[in-house]
Design brief:
Oligomer: single chain
Strand order of the largest sheet: 1-2
Number of domains: 1
Distance between the termini: 38 Å
Radius of gyration: 19 Å
Shape: globular
Structural class: mainly alpha
Number of strands: 2
Strand content: under 5%
Helix content: over 70%
Length: about 290
């Protein structure tokens, strides 16, 4: 049985010895923060209330996982490039779809939601401009939602395995935690079809299973968050970017926009894929060289 209670040690500010700042998480977090700050300032200068609201909402959602994990959120014990390697792995379907011209099922870009608050946010987003919509669907949503999922998922797994259903199997705890997360994920994206609920369920259960079964000790918990979140955020971004016209079109749109936030997004994605490729080349060389 996995001792998931150790995941909450971060609430007390304790870091297992040997951890260091995660190059992967620190890079992504810093760039997303700079993008949101730039968007906020641009909205203020232009008097664009929709852009200001979108920046504030996603900024607030971004700090929620940090409030749970504390300083350990940006710490790691893994290879500095391993998170980028998982990001590259999750992007392989995007490379294939971009070359073939076949779009994947979209997570984002929905104009409606069952929840009034998110219906309002969706309507506000439509008035924030195409560049902001591009960043929200392809940058902010994949990363911030993934980190939020892990924060909530850890809490639900802890409650199930350590408080409510102590004697049940590992898969039972994943089912208990994954079911509400699947519903939340699907509803927030305005899902109406059974197929999307199935897709959301698979995505959520995969997230929790990867995290739960790879967790082996307190010192590994942040490593798994880094590796698994890199893979799942990449899968999320892969689907959204494919739906918006493919990787080349996405990167070209960022360059065409030309603002500081768009250039940061271009740097983040092109750099992350490049570093991920370096990681896998190095792995192959070490294995067979």
């Amino acid at each position: 049985m996995v001792d998931v209670s150790t995941w909450f040690e971060t609430l007390k500010g304790e870091s297992p010895s040997g951890e260091r700042l995660s190059v992967f998480k620190l890079t992504v977090f810093s760039i997303v923060v700079l993008m949101l700050a730039n968007s906020m300032l641009a909205g203020v200068r232009a008097g664009s209330l929709p852009q200001i609201i979108v920046s504030l909402v996603f900024g607030f959602l971004l700090i929620l996982p940090i409030s749970l994990y504390g300083r350990d959120f940006l710490m790691d014990k893994t290879d500095p490039l391993e998170g980028f390697g998982m990001w590259f792995l999750g992007g392989i379907p995007l490379f294939v779809s971009s070359l073939s011209g076949v779009n994947l099922l979209s997570f984002g870009g929905k104009s409606a939601s069952f929840l009034p608050a998110f219906s309002y946010l969706a309507s506000v987003l439509q008035d924030a401009g195409q560049t902001t919509i591009l960043k929200v669907n392809n940058v902010y949503a994949p990363w911030i939602e993934t980190w939020l999922i892990f924060s909530l998922g850890i809490a639900l797994l802890y409650l199930s395995s350590e408080v409510i259903f102590k004697q049940r199997s590992d898969w039972f705890h994943i089912l208990v935690a994954g079911t509400p997360l699947s519903l939340i994920f699907a509803v927030l994206h305005g899902a109406r079809s059974p197929g999307f609920f199935v897709f959301a369920s698979v995505f959520m259960f995969l997230s929790l299973a990867l995290f739960y079964f790879e967790e082996s000790s307190p010192g590994d918990r942040i490593q798994v968050v880094s590796i698994t979140s890199g893979l799942l955020a990449s899968i999320h971004a892969t689907v959204n970017i494919s739906n918006s016209g493919g990787l080349v079109n996405f990167l070209s749109s960022l360059l065409a926009a030309g603002d500081f936030g768009s250039l940061l997004a271009f740097f983040l994605y092109s750099g992350a894929y490049a570093l991920g490729a370096v990681y896998w080349v190095r792995m192959v060389v070490r294995k067979f060289g």
